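To make this tangible, this section ends with a sequence with its structure tokens:
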Amino acid sequence: MCGRYLIDDEAYADIWEILNSHDFTGLNNDMQPLSAGEVFPSAIAPVYEKNSAAVVKWGFPHWKNSSLIINARSETALEKNMFHKPLRERRCVIPSSGFYEWSRSGRKTKDKYLLRKPGEHMLYMAGMVSTFRDAMGVEYTAFVILTTAANESVAPIHDRMPVILAPDEVDLWTSDDGFMEYTLLRPGPELLAERTVTTGGQTSLWGTD
């Protein structure tokens, strides 16, 4: 599960530079990418596709109700009607600083953690995009984040984690089918979990476990 992620100021500067270099597109021609901060489902956020960049909506529309599908399980995505074609044809990379998870400790109040790659200010998550029409018939593009079983560094907090790419794997993910199939099944990299606290609408680090 990945229900929220972070774009901090340092990552935002890098993302903005890449968006501009690719003449980025969005739902509207004058759309600006999300500002730095915590990214929630349904937000408009930047993604990289093959040789392009865009700002699009986080979440595929659910086929049964008005909810959003924000994640896809890497183990079964190729078997699902909703995901098979975009995973084959429109893979994307979601740039971030890290992602959030809440511990399953059984306590009444769950601890919130920010998970990052040690020593790196960027964390690239694998995903896919597809095009839909809203209730008014307006076409829009949306993305989902692929998740896999948690490795030893994440499992104490949650049983799932995003499929994570190294910086030099971004182009491979978007263009190479063989690499895609390998990546869906490999374990994720070691991550650093930092407990957070939210005050006044802002999330700050509270310590490292």
Summary: The domain at 4-98+121-189 is CATH 3.90.1680.10 (hypothetical protein yedk fold).
